[in-house]
Amino acid sequence: MKPVLIIRTGRAPDSIRARHGDFPHWFRLAAGLRPERLRIVDVAAGETLPAAGEVAGAIVTGSAAMVTEKLPWSEATAGWIRDAMDAEVPLFGVCYGHQLMTHALGGRVDYLPGGREIGTQSIGVSAGQAHDPLGAGLPASFRAHTTHEQSVLEPPAGAQILASSARDPHQWLRYGPNAISVQFHPEFNAEVMRAYIRRKRHDLHREGADAARIFSDVAATPIARRLLRRFAHLHGWAGD
Fold first, then answer.
1. All structural domains of the chain with their residue ranges
2. Residue 180 pairs with which residues in a beta bridge?
3. What is the set of active-site residues?
4. Average pLDDT across the chain, whole number
């Protein structure tokens, strides 16, 4: 059986990782994947990706790096994403992974106008999502956790916009029958979201944001989390 890749483009901060674990663990739990089904490739540390045709699919994680830096490992991963798209490999990008997929496929990524978006946001689904395989049965809006400074400013040609937040119109994109990405974090639980806000509180104060309100507004995000598990089921990844 071909493995499901977790393409690791970064790590959680040390303080968060020590208490809550790290990206691969969060994605495995959220998607309902068996550990023996996974292969983790740390591209940011220089590990080499297998040929796209050798995997059942891939999740591309978040990162503290910026897509606009065009780091060598990031640009190499963008090339792998293009190969995976050509091979119709199922892909699910998150945060940095969302931005990297857009960049790889010809869209534009840069800093989000107005500064960072962080905390539990209301995500509004687009009218066309009802016909999307992942969109069936979704409410008009749902909650999701976010933390990012850069974002997708222009999606690639042909990409469908499936959801947005008040400040980011490109929270959920579909690039083809097997490839989607989201700016929000379906793998986060509420405690992880709170940990990120605690860590960023000084930045938030400096930027004039109400860190206490953002912290108090954190809530569970079961529908956002369900999207990842539904994608895993649709593509035969899930272990249950």
1. 4-114+149-189+222-234
2. 92, 174
3. 95, 185, 187
4. 95
The string of pLDDT tens digits covering residues 139-175 is 999 999 999 999 999 999 999 999 999 999 999 999 9
- What is 4-114+149-189+222-234's CATH number, 2.102.10.10, 3.10.20.340, 3.40.50.880, 3.40.50.2300? 3.40.50.880
